[in-house]
Write a structure and sequence with these properties.
13% helix, 40 strands, alpha+beta, single chain, globular, five-stranded mixed sheet, 725 residues, four-stranded antiparallel sheet
């Protein structure tokens, strides 16, 4: 065994696979010291996805010497959320809509690329952005899910297609795929996104070698006349009103968190939010609505449930449990316990015995007013009236963006600390009156949502009954408290203690983290800096200006005696898809790239400064009536605003600067720009509705044009901030 380990180490040092092939990861290698050491074999580095490295060359003593090694232009300009995998000298990374890049990990030289043919029309309902969070590499295969739900198996050596499989059966729903596949036993598993749209969540398992579908696990029941044809669905059906909004789907998508435990042969999945958001609308007679906002342990051979734990029963705040899951062994009461840890959106940090789903700890890590605590005996939250917007509008913490979102967190097993970004921000939420019609492949949230920091500015524009109710809320007496804040924290999972906290520029400024045995934590920023902190105190040791916003988690590996650190850079993502003051996106644009550092490297090249924005052109003559403009504004917020934020530096075109008025219908209804990611909306919008949206945009452009010509003039309307679902 020792000789075999030595041989593997030597082969890794030379950058060659043990059997001469590429991407040869198996359980033995994943359990060896290579994982999270010289190599980074999963999106989280090791089998437990700890985002921790045992490498020590880059340390608190040497971090000041960190410099540029190489970068690679990805040829795109959207959100970058993946963490690359490095095995035997080759880096495998995914990008926009499921593109795959195989690079020489020492030089950045391209070995091959793969670009899926994504059906953007079928995937119009994708939320959020055309992102992808990684690949799985296993026994010579690279697995990736494209945005339109096609799962691909590629040859790790040259990238040629081995097989592909459709993960989405109903193309009439707003279902997409953005997460990384997970290899569990002899299957590869993938989930989907779209709970805010009109989907019923599930995960699907495929044969690793052939792509044949093995099983599918639905996360919510289908409702009548769909039979509850499994024990899990019979359990779930009892927690839903039979008269629930089955037409909308129920939500519960598994768009990220999945991790496999080979020791227990269990696959852990994190389940998303309900749709529509308000439980009164989704399941009128109440109920916990399993398996929304739950961790579910599945048997990978059959897809059967071993256990489940629901974090947010009857979720109505978009409190997904899809945030990254980390597996570890903790000493509790003097005994080692195999646990899973997660900081989901709802603001409580969960430590769960992964053998049976027993709650061990649930401590708050951010401001919460929907629940006061998680009862340690029952595992259920003690709900607070301040968070119940069924009784009237409420400002709820955390916001729908979550106290922590998809950004990977790093577990340091030596210091027993988790490093991750926390977000202190709230939402004004209220139920939309009446029964909302099902909008196929469109947002079906059923709730009004405004970020708490924007409430004072938006308040005068709200209709009088809602405006008066909001103005009377206690939270409105503290404008400073409404503002959002972000921080990088070092968190003790069992005690709930924050050992240290580093403030970020704002609530939007967060990214994935990497911790190492060298005593450092690494993370990028919205402003386009790559920072290195001490694990013990959070002291900033090194800050490198790269000129590109970083959201993804860094990773590290060693080749030829040199430790490298790599990170994917690019701004984007949904729910907050607009840039902020000081963002690198505004200053330098958003050319996506992989950036790699090493000790004693050189200065990091930055993109050329973004050219000045063109002036807002004079709008065409307004043809709409005030009623038409108002209707168009509502339609725009419900269908368009999630991408078109109408802000300087946005990834999607700024429609205040639109000059394509003459071909508006050809673009919106006819799909003239489909190849560029703007699908046709003729199946969702009537010509009259498209005309109303056009009238609204002419009004927005006219206001912006007047403001630009008279800068001190008070704007008639604020930029679109967030869709009111």
């Amino acid at each position: 065994m020792r000789r075999a380990a030595l041989l593997l180490a030597c082969m890794a040092l030379l950058g060659a696979a043990p059997d001469g092939g590429a991407g040869r990861i198996d359980r033995a290698r994943l359990a060896s010291a290579e994982a999270g050491g010289a190599m980074w074999l999963t999106t989280g580095g090791d089998a437990g996805k700890s985002h921790y490295s045992t490498l020590t060359d880059i340390s608190a003593a040497t971090a000041s010497r960190l410099g540029f090694a190489w970068d690679h232009d990805l040829g795109t300009s959207r959100g970058m959320e993946a963490t690359p995998i490095v095995v035997d000298g080759v880096m495998y990374a995914s990008g926009v809509a499921g593109r795959v890049y195989a690079l020489d990990a020492a030089t950045g030289a391209e070995r091959w690329t793969f670009t899926p043919e994504v059906d953007m029309q079928a995937n119009r309902g994708a939320c959020c952005d055309m992102v992808n969070r990684g690949v799985a590499v296993w026994q010579g295969h690279v697995y990736v899910a494209a945005l339109d739900g096609m799962l691909y198996a590629l040859d790790a050596g040259d990238g040629h297609l081995l097989w592909k499989a459709a993960t989405i059966d109903d193309r009439g729903r707003g279902t997409s795929s953005t997460g990384a596949p997970e290899v569990a036993g002899d299957v590869v598993v993938i989930g989907n996104g779209g709970a805010e749209y009109d989907t019923r969540g599930y995960v699907t398992a495929f044969d690793l070698a052939t792509g044949e579908r093995r099983w599918r696990f639905y996360t919510v029941p289908g409702g009548p006349p769909s039979p509850a044809d499994s024990p899990a669905m019979r359990v779930a059906a009892r927690t839903w009103d039979p008269d629930s909004r089955w037409d909308i789907g129920g939500g519960g998508t598994v768009w990220d968190a999945m991790v496999y435990d080979p020791r227990l042969d269990l696959l852990y999945i994190g389940v998303g939010n309900g749709g529509p958001y308000p439980r009164n609308a989704r399941s009128p007679k109440g109920g916990d609505n399993l398996y929304l906002s739950s961790i579910v342990a599945l048997r990978p051979k059959t897809g059967e449930v071993a256990w489940h734990y629901q974090q947010t029963p009857g979720d109505q705040w978009d409190y997904t449990a899809t945030q990254p899951i980390v597996l570890a062994d903790l000493t509790i009461d003097g005994r080692p316990v195999p646990v899973l840890m997660q900081a989901p959106k709802n603001g409580f940090f969960y430590v769960i015995d992964r053998r049976d789903g027993r709650l061990l700890s649930a401590k708050p890590y951010a401001r919460t007013n929907w629940a006061s605590r998680i009862d340690p005996a029952t595992g259920r939250p003690d709900l607070l009236p301040e968070g119940d917007y069924a009784t009237g509008p409420k400002i709820v913490w955390p916001a729908t963006i979550g106290a922590h979102n998809w950004h990977p967190m790093a577990w340091d097993p030596v210091r027993r600390l988790m490093f991750f970004n926390s977000i202190d921000y709230g939402n004004l939420m209220w139920e939309m009156p009446g029964r909302q019609p099902h909008a196929p492949k469109r947002l079906n949230g059923g709730a009004g949502i405004i970020f708490s920091g924007d409430v004072p500015a938006v308040l005068p524009t709200l209709p009088p009954p809602l405006r008066d109710a909001v103005a009377a809320l206690p939270a409105m007496r503290d404008p400073e408290g409404l503002k959002g804040r972000g921080a990088l924290i070092a968190f003790d999972p069992l005690t709930g203690e924050k050992r240290w906290s580093v403030p970020m520029a704002g609530w939007w400024d967060r990214a994935g983290t990497l911790a190492t045995a060298g005593g450092v934590v690494m993370m990028g920023t919205d402003a386009g800096r790559f920072n290195v902190y001490t694990s013990s105190t959070g002291q900033l040791l090194k800050s490198i200006d790269v000129g590109t916003t970083i959201m993804a988690a860094p990773m590290t590996y060693r080749i030829g005696g040199t430790q490298y650190v790599a990170v994917m850079a690019g701004w984007g993502g949904g729910g907050w898809g607009y840039p902020h003051p000081g963002s690198a996106q505004v200053r330098y644009g958003n050319a996506n790239r992989i950036i790699v550092f090493k000790l004693d490297g050189g200065p990091t090249p930055k993109p050329a400064p973004a050219p000045p924005l063109p002036p807002i052109p004079a709008p065409p003559r307004q043809f709409g009536t005030p009623a038409m403009i108002a209707e168009g504004g509502a339609l725009f917020r419900a269908n368009c605003a999630i991408c078109h934020s109408n802000m300087d530096g946005s990834n999607a075109p700024d429609l205040r600067r639109m000059q394509s008025h003459a071909v508006f219908d050809e673009i919106v209804l006819g799909g003239a720009l489909k190849a560029g990611g703007m699908p046709a909306w003729d199946d969702a919008l009537t010509p009259a509705q498209a005309k109303a949206i056009h009238a609204y945009l002419i009004d927005v452009q006219a206001t912006a044009y007047a403001d630009a010509r008279a800068p001190k003039r008070k704007a008639k309307s604020a930029p679109t901030i967030l869709t009111a679902y």
